[in-house]
Each structure stands twice: as structure tokens, then as C-alpha cells.
Design a protein that fits this description.
alpha/beta; Rossmann fold; 2 domains; 6-stranded parallel β-sheet; 14 helices; 12 strands
Length: about 350
């Protein structure tokens, strides 16, 4: 009797964020899809908060990476310990870095913090065997910033989802993401302040303790404009609570000034919810198009005036709302799957194996 060949082994080093993030969702769904593909996936979640506690947990990560099989490493860990990426290369087992975002591009950092993150990222990316980016936009950005050449694009998948019902009494807007200067919810609040004469409701869903000072500023901006009863800050939501928010939503507004892809945009489109995103970010790639039509539009980042103009037009033009919704419905079946994402990742890390 001929025994079947053992499944290829792949190590996957990630971390556990205290709040839901797009990167963590990507890691979890990718891990499941890689196992479904038949790989022997050895996942290890690094302890602690990264990159802040990298020094404290460096020895743990170093020990894990000595395991004798290929490793895929989340960028928030890899770019905090570039010397371990170099060591793996010297052992003849170069790591693959899964890049969700560049910490050096986050708003609100001091110049010294930005330079420190740039140095760490540069060292890790230069020593990696290859890099997997979550969008073509991110791959191009990497090449421009760090001359990184060995980059493979693996767009996030999206799960099939029911069509959203939308707001029951008034159009419902959603901004989904942690409250941070980079996500820039204050620009949305400023825009909504210009639309108080129209019927609408809005939710800001996401971690509200990541930048406490910024969260306080968002609350103050709402109070100053008398919007505290029309804009609900929910904190992070998951499961049935998040599913209910999606069902209640008519329009996603992503004001993020830096986005490698924008998984929330693809999730919105899976529910046939159109989106407004910032020009010049990876979220434009996630928005995409169908037969030349876009399920939403772009606005300049950080411009409440432009955002208010677009949202006012959407609120007052039934034909535009119908067209964006219809295009979003046509976009749904073209969204990438997690199976396709896992195929790309497995091929990039293992070559023909698996």
C-alpha cells in the first residue's frame, strides 16, 4: 500500500490585538483557508502588544522562528524585530512577511517615532525572502518607499453576505474602524455638521480606546455641532451586533487617510452597500468597478467640504442612490474569495508544494 504524501507544513506567526482589526481578521480567515487547503499550518500568536512590547517578547519569537519549516510572519511582528528576519535569512530559511500596513505612515506619530519605524521596516523588508501585500496599491507603495521588489499581491477575501436592508426611517451611514487620527473620523463629523438640515443617522464603529485623546476630540466635535444624538459611537462590535449594523447601513464612509486595501469596503460591497473612500489610498482598489461603473466614489482626504458635498448629493438624489446600490449588487460576485487568497499565499511561500 502506498501512503499519501504528508501535507506541507507552514508556520504562521501572528499576534492578538486587544481590539478587532482588519489585519487580525485577515490573519484568522487566511489561517482557516490555508487549513482547508490541506496544509499543516502551525500557527503561533506572539504574546503582548506589538510593536510596543517587542523587547519583552523577542526571545519567544526567536525560539518560534527556529522551527524547521517555512514561516509567514505578520508585519507588525516582523517589522518590530528585523534582526530576527536577518537571522532567519542567515540560517537559509528566509521569512515571508505578510504586510497589512506600514506603522511609519500612521498619523499622530512624532518625527522620531516615524524615523524609528522606517528604520525597522527597512531592515525587515530588505532581509525578507519575499513580501505579501494585500493590494496592488500597497505593493507599489512598498516599491516606492523601500525599493522592495519581491512582492506578491494577495487581496483579502470576503464572505458571502446577505443584502443590507438599510435604514428604516432615514438613510444610515457607517464609518467602521478604530478611532484614530489616520482613520480621521473628525473629518466625517465636520462634514455631517454641514448636513444637519437633512434626515440621516450615522454610526462610528470600532475601537475607541486606541487613541483616548483622539476619541475625546471626536466626542467634542460631535457636541460642538449638536450631533451627539444623531451619531452613535459604539466601540468595537463583532458577531450578531456587527451583522445588525451592516443590515441597517445604506452607505459606508471611509475617511481613512492611509489604507493599504480597506477590507471594510469589500465587506460593505458584499452586502451591496456602496462606499465613499479617500482618493490616493488602497481603498480605491477595494471599491473597484463593474462595467465601468463605480459602487460609490472618492473624495480628497481630510476635506470635510468635499465630503459634505458628495454626501448631500447622495442624500438628495434618489437616482444616484439607486445607481450606486445597483452597481454594488453587481460588484458582489466579483469580490475575491478567501480560497483564492490562500492559494496565492501558499504558492508564494511554498512554491509548488501543497
Amino acid at each position: 500500500m502506498i501512503s499519501a504524501s504528508p501535507a506541507p507544513t507552514l508556520g504562521f506567526l501572528t499576534w492578538s490585538s486587544p481590539v478587532p482589526t482588519g489585519g487580525n481578521v485577515y490573519d484568522d480567515r487566511l489561517a482557516a483557508a490555508l487549513r482547508d487547503r490541506g496544509l499543516d499550518l502551525r500557527r503561533h500568536r506572539a504574546a503582548g502588544t506589538w510593536p510596543a512590547e517587542a523587547d519583552r517578547h523577542r526571545a519567544e519569537v526567536a525560539d518560534v522562528l527556529r522551527s524547521p519549516y517555512p514561516w509567514l510572519v505578520d508585519s507588525i511582528v516582523a517589522c518590530a524585530v528585523p534582526e530576527l528576519v536577518v537571522e532567519a535569512n542567515e540560517r537559509g530559511r528566509p521569512l515571508t512577511i505578510l504586510l497589512h500596513s506600514l506603522l511609519s505612515t500612521e498619523l499622530g506619530l512624532t518625527h522620531a517615532e516615524q524615523e524609528r519605524y522606517r528604520a525597522l521596516e527597512s531592515g525587515a523588508l530588505a532581509a525578507a525572502g519575499r513580501v505579501i501585500a494585500t493590494s496592488q496599491w500597497a505593493a507599489d507603495d512598498l516599491r516606492r518607499r523601500y525599493a522592495t521588489t519581491s512582492v506578491v499581491v494577495a487581496q483579502p477575501g470576503v464572505d458571502p453576505s446577505p443584502l443590507a436592508s438599510g435604514g428604516r426611517t432615514a438613510p444610515s451611514l457607517l464609518c467602521l474602524g478604530s478611532l484614530t487620527p489616520t482613520k480621521d473620523q473628525i473629518t466625517l463629523v465636520q462634514a455631517l455638521g454641514r448636513l444637519a438640515d437633512l434626515p440621516w443617522t450615522a454610526r462610528l464603529v470600532g475601537g475607541d480606546r486606541v487613541w483616548p485623546d483622539y476619541t475625546a476630540a471626536v466626542h467634542s466635535a460631535l457636541t460642538e455641532r449638536g450631533l451627539q444624538d444623531r451619531v452613535l459611537i459604539t466601540g468595537p462590535l463583532t458577531g450578531s451586533a456587527l451583522a445588525q449594523v451592516w443590515d441597517d447601513t445604506d452607505l459606508l464612509v471611509l475617511t481613512s487617510r492611509s489604507e493599504t486595501y480597506g477590507m471594510v469596503v469589500a465587506e460593505a460591497l458584499a452586502h451591496a452597500i456602496p462606499a465613499i473612500v479617500c482618493a490616493g489610498t488602497g481603498a480605491v482598489e477595494a471599491l473597484g468597478e463593474t462595467d465601468g461603473d463605480h459602487p460609490g466614489t472618492t473624495v480628497p482626504p481630510g476635506s470635510p467640504e468635499d465630503l459634505a458635498t458628495v454626501v448631500r448629493t447622495w442624500l438628495t438624489d434618489p437616482e444616484l442612490r439607486r445607481r450606486w446600490r445597483a452597481t454594488a449588487e453587481r460588484r458582489r460576485p466579483t469580490l475575491p474569495s478567501w480560497t483564492a487568497c490562500a492559494d496565492i499565499v501558499a504558492t508564494a511561500v511554498l512554491g509548488g508544494a501543497g
